[in-house]
Amino acid sequence: MKTVGLQLFSYLLYLHKKFVWSGCMVELIVLSAFAVMLIVGTALSFPLTSILIIGFFLFFGYGLSRKISAKKLLLAAFESVWEVKTIIALFAVVGAMSAAWRAAGTIPEIVSISASLISPSIFILATFFCSAP
Description:
Layout: H1 4-18, H2 22-43, H3 48-65, H4 70-83, H5 85-104, H6 106-117, H7 123-131
């Protein structure tokens, strides 16, 4: 079973052979538009999820313009999300935990206690040992 990335790569390779200039130009425009959306949206402090949703519709529209059925595109999108569902759940748990820690003052307390445990004369050595694997 081919992964979605491999299918997309083989399809892009097919397009490159068939439409050497026009296919590459459209892909470059779509990718550039998404990159600009990410940069400008981040600079203007838009929520990342809204930028990604707009990007999804941008790429979905590109797929439809290349005569890929909506059913295939949605199926590929759901398969991709299904493959990374544990990572998404982990990010959600870590985000909720860090927000709760920040709200409760746990992180400043850890920093405060840790700062009193080391002296300036051994700071570099302590940093080295703390970051060593």
